[in-house]
Amino acid sequence: MAPVDPPPKLPIVRIILHIGMPKAGSTALQAALAAARRPLGKAGVLYPKGAFNHNFLVAGIAPVNRLGRVFAQQYRGDADKIRADFAAFWQGIVDSIDRRRPEVVVLSAESLFNGLWSGGPEPLRRLFEPLGGRLEIVCYVRRPSDHYLSMAQQQLKASSVLPAFGPVAYRRPLEVALAAAAAVHVVAYDRNLFPGGDIVADFAARFLPGTGVELHAVADAKVKPSMSAEAMDIVQAFRREHHVGEDNRFTRGTGVLMRGLAEREAALGGQRRPQLLPAVRTHIEQSSVDVLFLRDSFGIVFEGIDYDRIALADRVQPGAVGDICVVDPDRRALLAEAVAGLDIPVGEAARKFRAVPSARSGA
């Protein structure tokens, strides 16, 4: 779908394309790269402007009907508008390369992890081959159970329905990457193994050594803390009461509630990272057959998974947060009380938040 011809003789030596995976530190990495654009540029590294990240790349790779809920909500099926906006987006990147003449271009688009799944290698080749340079794809992969939990938190922002839990897929997008790129670097997302626990420092050490630019995590409003299981339960109950029939739609009211919960949780202290129920964790990890592909192809092994007992299993649809996580009823009550009275926009009106019973409690 590449709509433009790049300028001739672009002197790019490397194109580093970071494709996620989603919920594996992408936002923190993008915030740091965006903040360091100027010193990186002086070192011959371009992180193109025009956006915080380059997730719109997926519109040039995946079929329009597979672009996901953000595109569906914003474009409402207008394929011509998507193509036109992508053409402008890609032209901006090409023009930036032409002006800056960098040795290295870094692009970050975690949307491509799923986009490569549906798009295949050919659109990626057609897009990047005219630029010249060596295309290297970087992907941080998260432990199956941790990935599911983060995706569940993400889905609650736009839906009261939790994702089904079961096998996490890694193989297809990475096989597409292997078919399209000169090199594919797959790294286990494990803060315990990163310098200072920082994915940004890890990325810089692995893929941008010798630039003289010190990259590290920066404070950015887009980098959100995890919700506790209790906050997840409150958000789910809120969406069930006020957003029936609006699944897969982000709403202002949900955003206001989540920001309020984050502020109260910070003040409340204590355990914020939700914990999956042991049976749910085991089901996800032991059914994720693609971890065998990660081990055999890239040497990535997740500690605690019994690789001799990996077997594909059906997905299970949970009804409530309490079906997947340990929810402390006392902490939930404290948190609900702390956000009571918030002005929550619902439709055209603003309503005072009131505590809503947990879906699992049946109260």
Q: Can you list the strand order of the major beta sheet?
A: 2-3-1-4-5
How many whole angstroms does the radius of gyration measure?
Answer: 21 Å
Structural class: alpha/beta
Q: How many β-strand runs?
A: 7
Query: Span between N and C termini?
Result: 53 Å
Largest sheet: 5 strands, parallel
Q: Give the integer mean of the pLDDT values.
A: 89
Order of helices and strands: EHHEHHEHHEHHEHHHHHHEE
Low-confidence stretches: none
Quickly count the helices: 14
What portion of the residues fall into strands of 2 or more residues? 5-15%
Helix content: 40-55%
Task: Describe the protein.
- Strand 6 (343-346) and strand 7 (349-352) form a beta hairpin.
- Among the domains are: 14-143 and 169-207, Rossmann fold, CATH 3.40.50; 229-273 and 328-352, no CATH class.
- It is built from 14 helices and seven strands.
- Helix 5 crosses helix 8, helix 6 packs parallel to helix 8 and helix 11 (252-268) crosses helix 14 (329-339).
- The protein has helices spanning 26-35, 37-42, 69-75, 79-100, 111-119, 121-128, 144-156, 171-180, 199-207, 229-242, 252-268, 278-287, 290-298, 329-339; strands at 14-18, 45-46, 104-108, 134-141, 183-188, 343-346, 349-352.
- The protein is 43% helix and 9% strand.
- The mean pLDDT is 89.
- With 363 residues, the protein is of the alpha/beta class.
- The termini are far apart.
- The longest helix is centred in the first third of the chain and has 22 residues, at 79-100.
- A five-stranded parallel sheet has the order 2-3-1-4-5, with helices on both faces. Strands 6-7 form a two-stranded antiparallel sheet.
